[in-house]
Amino acid sequence: MSADALANLSLAAFDQMVDATSGFRSRPGQREMAQRIASALSGVTLGEHPDPGKAITVIQAGTGVGKSAAYLSTTVAMALSLKTRVVISTATVALQEQLMTKDLPALAAVLETPFVFALAKGRGRYVCKLKLERLAGAGEAGDDLFEADEDLPPPRGAFAKQLQGEDPEERRMKLYESLAVALASGKWDGDRDKLAEQPEPRDWSAVAAERHTCTARHCPRFRECSYYDARTKLAEAQVIVANHDLVLASLGMKALPELDKCLVVFDEGHHLPAVALDQFASSMDLSSLRWLDKLPKTLQEVGEKIHVELAQDVSTLAQQLKAALFDVGRMVMDLLKVTSSGYDGVHRFKMGVLPEAWRDPMTLIQGHATGLSKALEALGAEVKLLAKEDPSQAVSCSLMYAKLGQLAPKLGSVVETSSLLLAHGPQPLAKWLQSDTSSGLVFLTAHACPIVPGDLLRQSLWSQVRGAVITSASLTSCGSFDYFLQEAGLVKLPHVSTLEVESPFNYQTQGELIVVETAADPKNAEAYTLEMVGELLSDLSQVAHGALVLFTSRVQMKAAVDALGAALQEVVLVQGQMARGRLLATHQARIEAGLPSVIFGLQSFGEGLDLPGKLCETVFIAKLPFSPPSDPVEEARSEWLKSVGRDPFSELVVPATGIKLLQWTGRAIRTEDDHATVICYDRRLLRMAFGRRMLQGLPPYAVSRRVGGVALAV
User: Fold this and answer.
1) DSSP class of residue 333?
2) Is residue 546 within 8 Å of residue 616, measured between CB atoms?
3) pLDDT for 488-514, tens place per residue?
4) Reading across the β-sheet that carries 117-119, which strands appear in turn?
5) What's the pTM?
6) Phi, psi of 385 (to 5 degrees)
């Protein structure tokens, strides 16, 4: 089929879906988006080819455009025609649920060609039946190989309250027995997310399916495995819904379709750069080292059972590694004692250069950990070989392999982190040490992370992708795609195109943006917060229905909560005081009962929150949402840019804040019938050049300035 015919077929599928949607309102922007996707991807060449055609189209579609209908109809129809598949990647569970329960079923009901869709999850979301059987007491005597990871920090927050006073062992046994019964009876399929109550992370870690502990086809429970059952269903699906973390983590792992043989959609694509940094960051624990006492014993026990002599003296290596990690931990404590007020704190190595005094102990750590890692890997290979050659030993081999595998991630993190801490190239890494005492114990960690996400994405992701759509309501910043293209590694690639599709909403008539002129300078945090809270409380007293207040810090939000009078205390719901779902349900119930209701929230409430109509008639922005200046990766990147004569504030900080502000203001108007006001208390939005840059990237609200309670046109 020619490229033109393929594009026409894809666009026809979009028109078909639109025609079948009852109550549909014409959205020219939505069709423009569908047309761009159809024409861009129709020229893509998938599979083996000496000179393949590539296309990545980056589309910002404003709120209300109907992005999912535009990309689903076109890409799915095209994939079915090409006899290939579509991977749709999101950043949030909420969007995954929308795609799986609403959008994809609606498309499947319309398209003439039937298709199967499935949700992809990481292996750790599923139970390992073999581990669960042993822990629930169904295994043979002497099979007690698995246990909760006691090196993890103790539970905090909701989990800590929930578990208070319970005996940990008794609780775990009850949990594992109940899970085993549910699994055996068919009432549960092994998917953690389908449990009515989520287990405490330390309890789940002992029964979770993991790559390092899995012998796959050699496991005696392979045919009943929850994870591989899900993988089988995934293999049968033409449309796979995943998340950005899983897509990046699965590169080269074959857990998802190969990206040069399918079409890919990245919705909520503005998250990709941050996810890339998280994926390639590494850290190692310097204080919880009991696993190093267990490691040599485990290796020796397994070696004896399968009659394999270890090539290395693992006991000595483990002792040496533990001593070296302990020495570095002590150095961290001494350093943080000098540079911070207590034992909590962060110390970043400037320009990513590890001081000379740290290089020898870190080299020792790397050497000892690498030796142990090789011994572990070699022994694991012998166990898998035995399971393959002698199926009668499959059960014992799977258990031994799982026992070895429990230690592999800890050892791997030490090898990887120490290697990155010792590395030094033309572009520095962010390297830092951290101490956390929030759990009541001191947890010391060392970290290393690349600082330019675009380079990572270009090398690892875009080198494999042939045809992709990247979309979001916030890909431009300050009116330009430049920042996102740079951050995502797409700048100057010839096969990349951009399109901005305007929202169908009439922001001039539906909305208003008011900037309040405070006397206090926002840089003077104490004075500004005091004045801002006073203005906010006055405004909140006028709220008739629903409103959302977005704060830039917990300290700022607490100041507002503490200042609430008795009347407003009955009206305000605060993020963190109850589960998100319950908070939103309470808010909705109050509005439906004719009562006012105001939500106080932080960054996570500034994105993806859909409160149409009376649920949110006013959005209050306490301050421009600059990231905290203490983030070690951002600090390292700013330092590096300054060293090469560039301006990090203009190049990074302003556009990143501009995207957040676009998201925050986007909570106000959610439908064509909404009327809402955005009130920002930060005068810099109008007064400063960087503020006016951010303003250029916002929807075209009617803008006014409020001085002393009087609104003035801008």
Assistant:
1) H
2) yes
3) 999 999 999 999 999 999 999 999 999
4) 117-119, 239-243, 86-90, 263-266, 467-472, 55-61, 496-501
5) 0.90
6) -65, -40
Residue spans of the domains in the chain: they are 3-116+237-277+454-501, 121-224, 282-449, 507-713
pLDDT, tens only, 334-357: 888 755 555 678 899 999 999 999
Amino acid type, 624? L
Instruction: Tell me the helix, strand and coil percentages in the chain, rounded to 5.
Output: 50, 15, 35
Q: Are 324 and 368 in contact (CB under 8 A)?
A: yes
Q: How far apart are CA 553 and CA 550, in angstroms?
A: 9
d(CA 575, CA 545): 18
CA angle 77, 80, 86 (to 5 degrees): 80
> Would you state the structure tokens that stand for residue 540, as one six-digit string?
């909140």
Closest of 106, 24, 108, 37 to residue 67, by C-alpha: 37
Q: Which of 636, 605, 174, 570 is nearest to 429 (CA)?
A: 636
Dump pLDDT digits (tens) for 372-390: 999 999 999 999 999 999 9
Give domain 507-713's CATH number out of 3.30.70.100, 3.40.50.300, 2.60.120.200, 3.40.30.10.
3.40.50.300
In this chain, the answer to whether the domains covering 3-116+237-277+454-501 and 507-713 adopt an identical fold is yes
Phi and psi at 285, nearest 5°, equal -80, 135
Residue 451: φ, ψ to 5°: -115, -5
What are the tokens at 43?
């020229």
Identify any residues that bridge with 547 across adjacent strands, giving them in sequence order.
598, 618
What's domain 3-116+237-277+454-501's architecture? 3-Layer(aba) Sandwich (3.40)
Residue ranges of E strands in 64-157: 86-90, 117-119
Q: Are strands 282-285 and 345-348 parallel, antiparallel or unpaired?
A: unpaired
Mean of the pLDDT values across residues 449-475? Answer: 96
Paired tokens of 58: 């980056």
Q: How far is CA 294 from CA 279, 465, 577, in A?
A: 28, 43, 40
Decide: helix, strand or coil at residue 180. Answer: helix
DSSP 621: E
User: Strand pairing partners for 284?
Assistant: 446
Tokens of 193: 């997310």
